[in-house]
Design a protein that fits this description.
Layout lengths: L12 E2 L5 H11 L3 E6 L2 E7 H10 L17 E3 L4 H11 L3 E5 L5 E6 H24 L4 E6 L4 E4 L1 H7 L3 H4 L4 H4 L4 H10 L3 E8 L2 E12 L2 E11 L1 H26 L3 E6 L4 E4 L1 H7 L12 H4 L16 E5 L2 E12 L2 E10 L3 H32 L10 H14 L5 E4 L6 H12 L5 E5 L5 H9 E2 L12 E2 L1 H4 L4 E5 L6 H13 L1 E2 L8 E2 L3 E6 L3 H6 L5 H7 L2 E4 L10 H16 L5 E2 L1 H8 L6 H15 L4 E2 L6 H54 L4 H8 L3 H10 L2 H4 L4
Helix pairs in contact: 3-4, 13-14, 20-22, 23-24, 24-25
Length: 716
């Protein structure tokens, strides 16, 4: 770090003719201990408070001149030096102040010992911050352990590796959270030597660990554990080993192959060749052909261009030998990465019919595979629309049926529900060979709408492009034109759109002849077109022209069971965009999302998830990572649900008690009737009645009192 940042540039400049009193006054006023003595803007020397003290001790007058005590042998440092170079100069000169000059020896300022110390401390702090930031952002996990086996520091990578929050690990015992490291850490602390990289199984993954002793002022203060997760590397190594085995197997297979086989790259350079090919063309080793072009090694064999295949074979003559040449491209991810050439020439007569039959089968297999893939794509043109709900799957099924027709389609739905995705799927399944053109009717200024839709001819107006410009209808010829937000289309353009739909032709601005097109219209809106018709803002005849097939996309709040798969899909998309690695949402977070109203639908859900990914500190999004309004709504719904359950329980308890009372009342009435009948039979004799009822006399009295039988029965 350059010293110019820490130099005192507001230095005191004095003249050699100044007196002691003037200098002391200046020192007191400026609160400094040193001043530069300048003569004609040139540094003559410096004067310090200590030199003034010496002068006063010799001559105790304040009006004397300071010249005798001017220090002319000044220690200078260049302002472009770094702090450590300046320190060395000042230490060597044994001074506490130095004059800082530029490259022209002009005084730039004063560097004091305190300035130097401040600069070096700032540099040390800067280095410490950089080291801390570096460790925090390392891909390797770093854990610092004290001599008392306490975790003192941990970086983000270690936090994610162990799946435990930093607050939980910090200042906790190594024995409690990471006991598998205790023996190695104890050994490093005891021997004060570095533990070299070792392979270790920890927390369900494979890691390479190193343990380094940390010393402070020569004393051991702890250790640093550095781990690198090599689980993925071991997987790659395993794949590489499998690839090596496959290559060895392929080499052996090529050697045992009955005829000649050559493999080339996409530039036709030979990468592998078997012994049958070498024998046929008179080569002695693979080194003679590897890297050379196929045409140079085998000029007699004609090559098919591009990705063409000659699976049925072609009869050729190589010297005195008749052969069948077969060429097949090697395709990966739709790209041609090389070719396989087969030259069948050994015992050709015996094998000819069998090989032709096998090649025919290969050809048929390739054809049916292509047809199968084609059919698979046709049956799922809406696979890019994530859904599990029956209501959304019905919309996709209806859209697929609509795509098979040639009629116009009107899609209704709130903003963010995916109207444009449905429209694109309809175009993809329609089989139309033209382009899919999208127009947002609300985003184009009204004065430009006509030229955007119909284009213009050359010279139509001042500034028109040479050769004119095609409009959206012309660009969508034999394809599909998607009119998004059609409810915002001006009335003047609605009339012209209706004419194009009816006559399939239009006139460009400035053109003489009409242009005919074959365009299918798919329109979408989030507005109620019927109300717009009543308000005079949308043409009724245009509405019935575009509303041949009507699809309504349900809002997200009506299909909350789609939220979990949507979250999974959107998380993958957001992770790829933000370079994050958030894997899932907790059950509580999903529940909170499913209770939200979602006025912005799927687009709003994506924005909420993107925010949560940034605020999430682990691998899972929890409820507290979501926006406050969603959390508040979820908590309120939970309280309402608990209150509803309580009310239902109270209502059930009330019904149960009433039923019990009714049952008791019915039982009491029956008991009264039995007792009265017994009393009547015994002529009111309670002793006989009790015996008849098989109860004690006192029990009978109790029952009669409880049931008020005296009021109901009068003895004669």
């Amino acid at each position: 770090m350059e010293i110019s940042r820490f130099t005192t540039v507001d230095f005191v400049s004095l003249s050699p003719d100044n007196t002691v009193e003037e200098v002391l006054s200046t020192f007191l006023e400026k609160r400094v201990d040193i001043a530069c003595i300048m003569n004609d803007n040139q540094l003559e020397g410096v004067i310090t408070k200590y030199s003034l003290y010496r002068l006063l001790l010799r001559k105790k007058t304040l009006d004397q001149n300071i010249k005798p005590e001017i220090i002319k042998d000044v220690i200078k440092i260049n302002k472009d030096m770094n702090l450590y170079e300046a320190r060395d100069v000042m230490v060597e000169g044994k001074v506490s102040h130095a004059v800082v000059v530029d490259n022209n020896e002009k005084v730039f300022g004063i560097m004091s010992k305190s300035d130097l110390i401040r600069g070096i401390m700032s540099e040390a702090e800067n280095i410490a911050n950089k080291m801390s930031s570096l460790i925090e952002n390392l891909r390797d996990a770093v854990v610092s352990i004290s001599t008392k086996m306490t975790i003192t520091a941990i970086n983000k990578a270690a936090e994610e590796m162990f799946g435990v929050s930093r607050s939980t690990l910090l200042h906790s015992s190594l024995y409690h959270h990471l006991p598998e490291f205790v023996p190695s850490v104890y050994k490093v602390l005891k021997e004060e030597t570095v533990l070299e990289s070792r392979r270790i199984e920890v927390a369900g993954f494979t890691a390479i660990v190193s343990i380094i002793p940390i010393k402070k002022f020569g004393e051991l203060s702890g250790v640093m554990i550095v781990l690198r997760d090599v689980t993925s590397y071991e997987s790659i190594a395993s794949e590489l080993e499998s690839t090596k085995r496959l290559k060895t197997t392929l080499d052996c297979a090529l050697k045992l192959t009955y005829d000649g086989v050559v493999i080339t790259d996409s530039d036709r350079k030979i990468t592998m060749a078997n012994d049958g090919f070498l024998d046929l063309f008179g080569f002695h080793s693979q080194e003679e052909v590897i890297g050379s072009t196929f045409s140079k090694a085998a000029p007699q064999i004609p090559l098919k261009t591009g990705g063409q295949s000659s699976a049925e074979g072609e009869v050729i003559q190589i010297g005195q030998v008749k052969c069948i040449s077969v060429q097949n491209p090697i395709i990966k991810d739709g790209r041609n990465i090389g070719y396989i050439h087969k030259i069948i020439y050994k015992h050709l007569d015996q094998w000819k019919s069998l090989l032709n039959h096998m090649d025919n089968l290969e050809h048929e297999l390739s054809y049916y595979r292509g047809e199968f893939l084609k059919a698979s794509n046709q049956t799922s043109p809406f696979s890019h629309i994530v859904s599990e709900s029956s209501i959304m799957n019905k919309v996709k099924n209806d859209a697929y049926i609509a795509g098979q027709s040639f009629s116009t389609v009107l899609i209704n739905g709130e903003s963010g529900t995916g109207k444009e995705l449905i429209a694109e799927g309809i175009h993809n399944v329609s089989g139309r060979h033209g382009a899919y053109i999208k127009v947002n009717c609300a985003a184009i200024p009204e004065e430009l709408l006509e030229s955007e839709f119909f284009g213009y001819a050359e010279g139509a107006f001042t500034g028109a492009k040479k050769g004119g410009k095609p409009g959206k209808f012309e660009l969508a010829d034999r394809g599909t034109l998607f009119l998004d937000e059609i409810g915002d289309m001006p009335m003047s353009l609605q009339a012209k759109l209706l004419r194009v739909l009816q006559e399939q032709e239009f006139e460009k601005l400035g053109a003489i002849e009409p242009t005919s097109v074959d365009v299918r219209i798919i329109a979408a809106t989030n507005k109620d077109l019927i109300n717009l018709i009543k308000e005079g803002r949308f043409r009724e005849d245009l509405y019935y022209r575009i509303n041949v097939i009507h699809l309504t996309i349900p809002p997200l709040r009506d299909r909350t069971q789609d939220i979990p798969p949507l979250c999974k899909h959107l998380l993958n998309k957001i992770n790829a965009k933000t370079q994050k690695n958030v894997l899932r949402l907790t059950h509580e977070a999903v529940n909170a999302l499913q209770q939200h109203n979602w006025p912005g639908n799927v687009r709003q859900l994506e924005n909420v998830l993107e925010r949560a990914v940034h605020f999430c500190t682990g691998l899972s999004i929890d409820k507290h990572d979501l926006p406050e309004d969603i959390i508040t709504k979820a908590v309120k719904n939970e309280k309402d649900e608990l209150l509803t359950i309580k009310n239902e329980k109270d209502e059930l308890l009330t019904i149960k008690n009433e039923t019990k009372k009714q049952s008791m009342h019915s039982f009491d009435e029956a008991e009264v009737e039995v007792i009265i009948n017994a009393l009547k039979k015994t002529g009111g004799n309670r002793t006989k009645a009790a015996k008849l009822l098989n109860i004690s006399r006192s029990n009978l009295y109790q029952k009669m009192n409880r049931l008020n039988i005296q009021e109901h029965f009068h003895y004669s």
